[in-house]
Design a protein that fits this description.
The longest helix is centred in the first third of the chain and has 31 residues. By secondary structure, this protein is mostly helical. Helix 1 runs antiparallel to helix 2 and helix 2 runs antiparallel to helix 3. The model has no long low-confidence stretch (mean pLDDT 90). It contains 3 helices and no strands.
């Protein structure tokens, strides 16, 4: 790997890491204090943030971003289906 590719990769990973940290803080704020919204809205936000984080980790740290299209499609589908099912089960309860 050349130095420019390494620095570009490092920048991307650092940005994704920053987004993950920010998402964790957002989840904590909504999960612990509800941040001025109802508990149901806060719970939905926490679930959505969790699945966004799963997708970011899978794509950027498990390198599924550059995986064959079928594998990436399975992962993207998993995130969408399981996230929707979890939200649906929560909202129907």
């Amino acid at each position: 790997m050349t130095a420019s590719v390494r620095s570009m990769f490092g920048l991307r990973v650092s940005l994704v890491w920053g987004v993950l940290v920010l998402a964790t803080i957002v989840s904590w704020v909504f999960g612990s204090a509800h941040a001025g919204v109802g508990y149901r809205t806060a719970s939905v936000l926490v679930i959505v943030v969790a699945f966004v984080k799963i997708r970011l980790v899978g794509l950027h740290f498990m390198e599924l971003r550059d995986a064959p299209l079928a594998l990436r499609g399975i992962f993207e589908g998993y995130c969408l289906v399981v996230g929707s099912l979890v939200l649906g089960m929560y909202l129907s309860g």
